Amino acid sequence: MPPHPETWLCVRPEGLWCRPGEFYIDPVRAVPRAVITHGHSDHARPGHGAVLGTSETLAIMRARMGEGRAGDSQQALGYGEALAVNGVTVSLAPAGHVLGSAQVVMEWQGSRAVVSGDYKRRADPTCTAFEPVVCDVFVTEATFALPVFRHPPVEDEIAKLLASLALFPERAHVVGVYALGKCQRLIALLRRAGWDRPIYIHGGLVALCGLYEALGVPLGPLLPVPLVKRGGPAILAGEIVLAPPSAEATPWARRLAEPVTCAASGWMRVRQRAKARGIELPMIISDHADWDELLDTCAEVQAPEVWVTHGREDALIHALSLRGVRGRALHLVGFSEDDEEAAPVEAA
Question: A GO molecular-function term, please (predicted)?
């Protein structure tokens, strides 16, 4: 009988540890060997020895951390390629979260476990769509694991932004987005909806937009927000401006023409969050699976056991138990419920 994954996959202070392979998945501390699911900073940490990931994730790590901190050595693995690591067969499957994001598929002595990292099930022009992998144990996030979280069609949310632009042509619309993934996805969705004018971006978003384009993701014309003298006329009326969420409440935004403060996040489903942040136009656009998608994914992978990480673990475990699936909370620490930290606002 194949060994149960809990005999060879366990939680340590550093993170999720594959014992026979002697590597960690998304460790929160520097370790000798790490497999990284994607480039968000709560999953991709600096200072590891050997790092394995998709070529896009490795490029993102180098761009964000610098060559010297993104791993002493890096090895790229394409989707569907297999690598033997101390007798464990490791492969990567698309996770659909951000560019290069991957699920880690591990097989050892006839037993298969899949660590999904962060994932979404909606179509995204900027990254490869999630692919379910049948397994014995599935490790899932639970960021939006409550029934209240059912994300609307992204096309409807983009239409809200374009309608507001038509209604208030004298105002700039500044949308709070995270630097990695959300920013580029929103740009691509706007292009798909027919917005072919330049989109203005905060300086903290420039580098990763450039990297996406270098990696083959077209974003169309992007321009920096112009510098203006103090006391000068307000700028960019009728234009779309993307910025880190933390930039919207800083003096940086005062140069814009009567800005309509917008935000693109799954958390905009919670009205209190939007109100507390002073968001005038909340857009429910998430890079994580919603409640129904989490349950559907767990059914698709056919795992009799699901391990749940960072998020609403109890609700998901209970719902899975009603479907005859055993759930287990991993209680991993160091992972954010947001997509990632906001980019610094000093770079204008």
Answer: exonuclease activity
Q: pTM here?
A: 0.94
Indicate the pLDDT class of residue 130, thresholds 50, 70 and 90. very high
pLDDT tens-place string over residues 231-264: 778 999 999 999 999 887 788 888 999 999 999 9
Q: Which fold has domain 154-283?
A: Rossmann fold (3.40.50)
- What are the φ/ψ torsions at residue 309 (nearest 5 degrees)? -120, 175
Whether 224 contacts 200, CB under 8 Å: yes
Q: What SS3 string covers the chain?
A: CCCCHHHCEEEECCEEEECCCCEEECCCCCCCEEECCCCCCCCCCCCCCEEEECHHHHHHHHHHHCCCCCCCEEEECCECCEEEECCEEEEEEECCCCCCCEEEEEEECCEEEEECCCCCCCCCCCCCCCCCCCCCEEEEEECCCCCCCCCCCHHHHHHHHHHHHHHCCCCCEEEECCCCCHHHHHHHHHHHCCCCCCEEECHHHHHHHHHHHHCCCCCCCEEECCCCCCCCCCECCCCEEEECHHHCCCHHHHHECCCEEEEECHHHHCHHHHHHCCCCEEECCCCCCCHHHHHHHHHHHCCCEEEEEEECHHHHHHHHHCCCCEEEECCCCCCCCCCCCCCCCCCC
Q: Write the pLDDT tens digit of every residue in 267-297.
A: 999 999 999 989 999 999 999 999 999 999 9
Q: Rounded distance, CA 98 to CA 57, Å?
A: 9
Q: 281 with 171: CB under 8 angstroms?
A: no
Assigned CATH topology for domain 5-148+287-329: Metallo-beta-lactamase; Chain A (3.60.15)
Domain boundaries, the chain: 5-148+287-329, 154-283
C-alpha 263/C-alpha 243 separation (Å) is 10
